Every structure is written in structure tokens, then in C-alpha cells.
Amino acid sequence: MSAEPTLGEELSCRRVLVVDDDGALRELLTDYLELQGIEVVAADSGEAALRELQGPRPPDLVVLDIRMPGISGNEVLRRMKADPRLEHIPVAAMTGMRPGEFQLVAPPDEFLAKPFDVESLSAALTRMCGK
Questions:
Q1: Is 71 contained in some domain?
Q2: In Å, what is the CA distance from 59 to each residue of 6, 28, 78, 98, 118?
Q3: What residues bear 4-aspartylphosphate in this entry (predicted)?
């Protein structure tokens, strides 16, 4: 009997940018994705996310908190979708706010309501980047 494939083996996205100002959640997501064989770059702010996105090696996918101080995830999403170099990168937006408490400036590819479990995260990533 063969072992179950890891999430990383099932995805075409090999490099993921995780953006959240909550250090504990950022670390949890990073650890989970790395255990699944996915290369993770973490950013603690919208500013750091934009620096990473403008770097020489943009990620294949972004997991993005919407509500952050400074440059919000909403603004990061808007800038990504307005940039021809970045607009194709899938984005999973996450927030603990309830519907009606926020309005997204651009539609993400997936939406994760906090708190969410790893099964929900895995399913969202598979829908965006499944082979």
C-alpha cells in the first residue's frame, strides 16, 4: 500500500506567500504548508507582502489576511489585481470579520473565514492550484 500524497505533491503551486500580522497564525500556516512539502515565504504586513511580490521570484499563490494595520490585505489584493505581472497569482483571502463588516476591492480566488481548519485550507489551495 502506498502512502497518501502530500498536499505539496498534489498542487502545481510550489511557492506560497503567507501574509498575516498575527504571528501565531502565520507560524501555524507556515509550519503546516512546509510539512506538506510546500515552500513558504511569510510576511507580517501588507508592506512586507508587496516587497516580496515585487521581488525577483514572486510566489505561485498568496494566502492573505484582509485586516492588517498599515497597508491592508484589501489594498495588497487591489494592487496585485492591477499589476499585469501579479494579476494571475491566485489569492486566498482570510478574515475574522463577518460578511457586511468589510468590502473587498477585488474578488479573491478563495475566501477563508477565520477560524478555519487545515481541511478548509487544503481544499481551497487544491481548488486554486490542483494538478
A1: yes
A2: 19, 19, 17, 28, 20
A3: 65
Length of the chain: 131
Does any domain span residue 5? Answer: no
pLDDT, tens digit (0-9, with 9 covering 90-100), for 42-55: 999 999 999 999 99
CA atoms within 13 A on the CB side of 89: 27
Specify the CATH number for the domain of residue 33: 3.40.50.2300
Q: Are 38 and 7 in contact (CB under 8 A)?
A: yes
Q: What pLDDT is recorded for position 6?
A: 74
The pTM assigned to this predicted structure is 0.90
Residue 44 belongs to some domain of the structure: yes
Domain that holds residue 54: 11-129
